[in-house]
Fold this sequence. Notes:
CATH architecture of the largest domain: 2-Layer Sandwich
Order of helices and strands: HHHHHEEHEEHEEHEEEHEHHH
Bound molecules: 3,4-dihydroxyphenylalanine
Radius of gyration: 39 Å
Amino acid sequence: MKNKIKALLNEVDDFSAETKEQIEEFRINLLGSKGKLKSLFADFKNVPNDQKKEVGQLMNTLKEKAQHKIDELTIKFSNNETSTTDYLDLSRTATPIKLGSRHPITIVRNEITEIFSRIGFTVSEGPEVEDDWHNFSALNFPPEHPARDMQDTFFVESEAGEMALRTHTSSVQVRMMENNKPPIRTISPGRVYRNEAISARAHCFFHQVEGLYIAENVSFADLKQTLLYFAKEMFGEETKIRLRPSYFPFTEPSAEMDVSCSVCNSKGCTICKYTGFLEILGCGMVDPNVLGNCGIDPKKYSGFAFGMGVERIAMLKFKVNDLRLYSEGDVRFLDQFKAAF
Ligand code: DAH
């Protein structure tokens, strides 16, 4: 009896199968209702009492080993099946394709361009690598102006001489005035670059939207009304604006515009630093020197210009307090804007 079991144990060890049918045959032969194990168990009653323990253990080992071998081979065959069979289940539910979302900067830029297009502004663009003329000189920056300093500007060596990554979208104003006759009414969205250390509040690149309106008899009142319209459309009907005198080389007079804080309804909060207002753009009447530099007669025409930071407006709209989030491409951040568009 012991020898019989040992022979079967060897048989189990040596067994390997080429097909699933062979495994099934092996199972029936050994573990089936008329199988060898069954007859061994039937013979067990004839085993002398002093050997019962040993023989019983051997029989259990044999049963376990046989079952283990069958399981092992069955798994091997089912794995092979999935990798080698070319089977396409057309009724299976499709794996969902993850949808992307618009970038918050794109959402805000589109909203700004849409608001201005409703009052007749076209959209214009210019190059990101600019010459000194379009970025600085034509815009009335004196030669020694600190904004040209290496601190602020990324310079680029090129065959055409020294170029720079534009530091503002005001360069597109110059190109528009050089290439078009008034009336000109355009906004220029785009990316700008500055040599700044990256932090929550500053970045070496960001986005601006420049605005320009040149025609006969354009006044500061037109500028004010245009900006009030924009602020109300962007932040809500109850929004108030405030213009503070400022200085830019390319506008005279110049101003900075604040909007009432929509976070606290102008009551004062950490976002508006308890002033009730937030600065969102620079603006002014285009300096007659700039009009002249761009081939427009300053005696006949006048105009206004403004420039705003898109990140700043997105920050107020979405209450994002770290500029770096906009360029890190973190899906956990970007996913949150699905509903915003
Ligand atoms: N270019 C300015 C800047 O980058 C923003 C600006 C201010 C644009 C006044 C204008 C303007 O057109 O009139 O800070």
